[in-house]
Each structure stands twice: as C-alpha cells, then as structure tokens.
Specification:
Number of domains: 1
CATH class: Alpha Beta
Structural class: alpha/beta
Strand content: 15-25%
Largest sheet: 9 strands, mixed
Helix content: 25-40%
CATH topology: Spore Coat Polysaccharide Biosynthesis Protein SpsA, Chain A
Number of strands: 13
Radius of gyration: 19 Å
Number of helices: 8
Order of helices and strands: EEEHEHHHEHEEHEEEEHEEH
Shape: globular
Distance between the termini: 47 Å
C-alpha cells in the first residue's frame, strides 16, 4: 500500500537526559541553545524546509509547559519594551516563532508505555491517520546544511513499496563502536537487513551510522507496543523498523548534510562550536 506523503512530523524529547543533570532538572534537553535558538527549533525548521504542515512534539510532563510557552506564549511586555527602546527588530525572531511556524501540538509521553525511544512515537499514534506516512525526528540529532526530512520525503516518492526509510551518515571506522551501524540486505538497492548497536569495530557490518531521522508508515505501530520490548526491557524504534523489513523493504538514504548529536555535554559542545563557526557571523 502506498500511503500519502508525509505532512506530519513527530519530534521527541521525552527522556530525563540524566547525562545533563542538573540543568535538565529544570530545562528539557532540546531547549538547550545553539546560538540563540533551542535545539528543538532547528528540528522544527528542518521540517518546515520540507513542507511539513503539522508537528507533534512529545515531551515529559515537566517539559510540556515549557514547550507550550516557547512556541505559543505571547510576550507583549518584551515587545513593548523593545518598541520603546527603538529595538523592534530584536523581536522579529520571536514573532517568527509565534506567527510563521506550522501547527505545533505538544503532548506528554503516555506513562503506560515502557521506557525507550519508541515510546514517544507510540504516544503520538492518535495524531497519525491510517492512510498517511509520517516522519520522526529525535531532537538531540541535529543536521546542518540540509533537511533530512526533505530527503526522506523525496525518497518515499521514488519508492512505492517502502515500509520505512531511514537516514544514515558515513562515519570513521574508529567511532563505529559508539553508534547503531547498518547492515545492508541489498547494497545496490540500499535496503536494510538490520542495525547493529555499538558493535566491536572489527565486527561492524558497514560504516553507515543510523540516527534519529525516519520516515515511517502506520504499519510500524503494530510493533511499537508494550509487548515488543527489547534490550533492558525498553521499547526501541530500531527493533520496530527491523520488524518492518519482514513486511517489505526499508530503504536507506545518506544525508546530504552534516549530522551531529547533542545527546551528551561533550558532543553538545562540539555541535555548538560547529554552529557558532558556520552560522554566527
């Protein structure tokens, strides 16, 4: 079955980000800044560049009001002060977020789901129609210089039989033991067999690293349920995508940009340095 092209995106930030404590006791991880923008906004802008019309952000209970305020909260006192000071141009980035962004709905992760990176996606099930494909972004994965979401959608237009499409980046051999590495079923067609999590370097099946950019079809939800937990009793997106390969092809596309993770303070610092060098003039 060919589903409608994605017009919706699910962006997840529903973990506790324990590697960032104590700051994430108060601030969601994806609200940490790159320049003057939170990481989450970069993910939203990536979706906008691909024509996504509706975004569902899945947050923690504590994070939900923070995202609600950022994307929907009016701040007339700031605008009035800037107007009075003759600095109205400084309010423009706020106006852009409040007026020009697509529809953004903030939800909490369903507490009935187990821990795991698949649970936020499953929590957004009611927002996805049965006849439409959709995209998923992990907010701690940042892509500079291109929209992976656009690449995913273009690939889906070319692959009528796709059950899912995932993005990958070639990584140096010496770091392959830190990521999920793709094993190809068919190298010519670039289809997935499975993903090996943090393999020994000598056992890595390729140099293609999978990260949090996926195009999924609604069929994935039959595998994203509490009965399909995997390692450590968690619900894993990768497991669900691997299960989809039994139903039909899962294609891999290489990113046209530069992927960096902000999942821990050290990598966040590297991403900040890159952003400051490339985008802050």
């Amino acid at each position: 079955m060919k589903y409608q092209l994605p017009k919706k995106a699910i962006i997840t930030d529903a973990g506790f980000a324990s590697r960032y404590l104590p700051i994430t006791k108060t601030i969601p991880k994806a609200m940490l800044p790159l320049g003057s923008k939170p990481i989450m906004q970069l993910a939203v802008e990536e979706c906008m560049a691909a024509g996504i019309e509706e975004i569902i952000i899945v947050a923690t209970k504590a994070g939900r009001p923070i995202y609600e305020d950022y994307f929907h909260g009016e701040v007339p006192q700031i605008k009035a002060l800037l107007d009075k000071q003759g600095k109205s141009d400084r309010y423009e980035p706020v106006r852009e977020v409040l007026e020009n962004f697509p529809k953004i709905t903030i939800i909490e992760q369903d507490p009935n789901y187990p821990y795991g990176n698949g649970s936020p996606i499953a929590s957004a099930r009611d927002y996805i129609n049965d006849d439409e494909a959709f995209v998923v972004l992990y907010s701690d994965d940042v892509v500079f210089g291109s929209s992976d979401v656009k690449t995913l959608i273009q690939s889906y237009e070319a692959h009528d039989d796709a059950k899912a499409i995932i993005i990958a980046q070639e990584m140096p051999r010496e770091v392959l033991n830190k990521y999920g590495i793709i094993r190809l079923k068919n190298e010519e067609d670039m289809t997935l067999e499975n993903i090996v999590e943090k393999p020994n370097i000598e056992d890595a099946p390729s140099s293609l690293t999978s990260y949090g950019r996926y195009l999924l079809t609604p069929e994935v939800f039959k595998y994203l349920n509490p009965d399909n937990t995997g390692l450590d009793g968690e619900l894993w997106t990768v497991d669900a995508i691997t299960n989809l390969t039994e139903d039909g092809p899962v294609y891999i596309e290489k990113t046209h940009g530069t992927w960096m993770t902000t999942g821990d303070p050290k990598n966040y610092a590297a991403a900040s340095e890159y952003y400051n060098k490339e985008y802050l003039k």
